[in-house]
Design a protein that fits this description.
2 copies of one chain form a homodimer. By secondary structure, the first copy, chain A, is an alpha+beta fold. Chain A has helices at 23-40, 45-50, 171-179, 184-187; strands at 4-9, 53-64, 73-83, 88-96, 101-113, 119-120, 152-157, 192-199, 208-215, 219-225, 231-239. Helices cover 15% and strands 38% of the residues of chain A. The longest helix of chain A is centred in the first third of the chain and has 18 residues, at 23-40. The interface between A and B is large, with 36 and 36 residues.
Chain lengths: 240, 240
């Protein structure tokens, strides 16, 4: 019944040309923290895979007050907030070394059977009672994002470098494909305030996808579509 | 006059579906080691940038006996072997925790003026005398790679996620574009023996590139071409 704390240092290969950690880097570190903390509590991927079950990220949101700089050390605090039959919530707070909050994140996870890809009852698969921390949520929960038409789009075929140990496209790769569609000025403006991501369907090696985007001063919206037109992932970025 | 040793652990986001560290991961770790060790010896990027000069990777080769597994800890040994007017050689040996060599690497570096992008005399810019370690080279030096026609190719526009703090495409991104052209079976075969890479010209955000490839049982060759037809990068992979 306590939070986990995990230390990071922003490496040169994790910054963009502004020498600040990219959104992808922050997302990777946050998800890494989730994995480590689950592992430490005995329900990490290693344990789950022994039973042919695995974690699936369903929704994810990150708020960014300040993107840490190259070589900056910072700390991610994490805890499990609740668990229901189908979904568990894990929160995060990002702290700099002066003890200031520089961001926060919230994530919703399900457990699937790796063969059938069907969601399983969390409460009968993970011993959660001892790990839930009754702290207040650090931010509004990850939003449900509606369909968009998109004012422009690009095609993308899922490649070797996109897929992870789960044999599907990695969670942060969707965000990489999406943000690569935006003007460079926007990505390097330091105005990133919040991203909300909905993961709706996994995508596999060789799948041909369409990444659609629409964008205005304060908000960018994205949809990754499969060949049958269904959405695999949607996201919304809010700008300061 | 001693080698540096740097410890790594293969993280879940650094493996492919075979749960072994990817070539990109190994290259990232090796280049990270080079950066850390240069930094520790007082001629890292941080020091150089204060004088508006920077390191540029010219040639790089990696030999892989065994790709370390997910969560496996391993160690990279590195040292500076020599320094001439225009180029310095840095070697690496990858060790597993049982003290077995699992790979090695060799790299050639120049120093450029960040404004003019011209190469500078290394000996008048870096105090090297004290750091050269007179150890035998762990492998044949990175090869010069000739032009190829290519039996197939893909277009690629340099994106936000491709560029690093130097404002050009990151060294390992070329390898990512290249290896994404190969059949998945080849990349996951565990037969990777050696890659040699020649960096010939930097590429900038928005540049349209052609990535050409040719491939047989024992050898894959690649060329990244700029719009004027000149080569930005060439590489050759040898397979066991």
């Amino acid at each position: 019944m306590e939070c986990g704390f995990y230390d990071f240092q922003v490496q040169p290969r994790e910054v963009d040309l502004t020498k600040r950690a990219t959104l992808i880097t922050l997302g990777d570190h946050i998800l890494h923290t989730a994995g480590e903390d689950a592992d430490r509590n005995g329900f990490g991927i290693r344990n789950l895979h022994e039973h042919n079950i695995s974690w699936v990220l369903s929704r994810f949101a990150i708020e960014v007050d300040r993107q840490p700089e190259e070589y900056e050390k910072y700390r991610i605090q994490t805890w499990v907030a609740d668990v229901s039959r189908v979904m568990t919530t894990r929160h995060f707070i990002l702290w700099d070394l002066n003890g200031h909050e520089i961001g926060r994140a919230s994530s919703l996870w399900a457990i699937i059977d790796m063969q059938s890809r069907q969601a399983l009852d969390l409460r009968s698969n993970v011993q959660y009672t001892d790990v839930i921390v009754p702290l207040e949520a650090p931010m509004p929960r990850p939003a449900r994002i509606g369909a968009i038409a998109g004012t422009w789009s690009e095609e993308h075929t899922v490649r070797y470098s996109d897929i992870d140990f789960n044999q599907h496209a990695n969670s942060m790769k969707y965000v990489e494909w999406m943000t690569d569609l935006l003007p460079l000025e926007k990505m390097t403006s330091g105005r990133l305030a919040r991203i909300d991501i909905n993961y709706l369907h996994e995508t596999r090696y060789g799948e041909k996808l369409t990444i659609a985007a629409e964008d205005n001063e304060t908000c960018s919206r994205f949809e990754v579509r499969r060949q049958d037109g269904s959405a695999a992932c949607r996201a919304m970025i809010q700008w300061k």
